[in-house]
């Protein structure tokens, strides 16, 4: 699963710089997570860093975007390959 940011977000700006995949960005009203870039930090860390730093615990797993650990690792590897080409 990718992660998502709920309406409880207070726009504190602590999650965005913690994302190793640059999946977090400012949306129209609150921060949002691009599920195509979110690997739940698989490949980088043991736990999602945004969840670790969020002071209001508003970053749950997105039930609409289910992925296995293997799929998340494949996404991580794809994103790393794309970053090297850029």
Automatic annotation (TrEMBL):
Residues 1-29, 31-64 form the 4Fe-4S ferredoxin-type domain. InterPro entries: 4Fe4S_Fe-S-bd, 4Fe4S_Fe_S_CS, PSI_iron-sulfur_center, YfhL-like. It comes from the Bacteria. GO terms for molecular function: 4 iron, 4 sulfur cluster binding; metal ion binding. One of its GO terms (cellular component) is cytoplasm. The keyword Transmembrane helix does not apply. Keywords: 4Fe-4S, Electron transport, Iron, Iron-sulfur, Metal-binding, Repeat, Transport. This is [4Fe-4S]-type ferredoxin protein. It comes from Herbaspirillum seropedicae (strain SmR1). The lineage of its organism: Bacteria, Pseudomonadati, Pseudomonadota, Betaproteobacteria, Burkholderiales.
């Amino acid at each position: 699963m990718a992660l998502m940011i709920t309406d409880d977000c207070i726009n504190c700006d602590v999650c965005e710089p913690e994302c190793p995949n640059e999946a977090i960005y400012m949306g129209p009203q609150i921060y949002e997570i691009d599920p195509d870039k979110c690997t739940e930090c698989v490949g980088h860390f043991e736990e999602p860093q945004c969840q670790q730093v969020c002071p209001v615990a508003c970053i749950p797993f997105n039930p609409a975007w289910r992925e296995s650990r293997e799929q998340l690792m494949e996404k991580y590897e794809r994103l790393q390959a794309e970053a090297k080409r850029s």
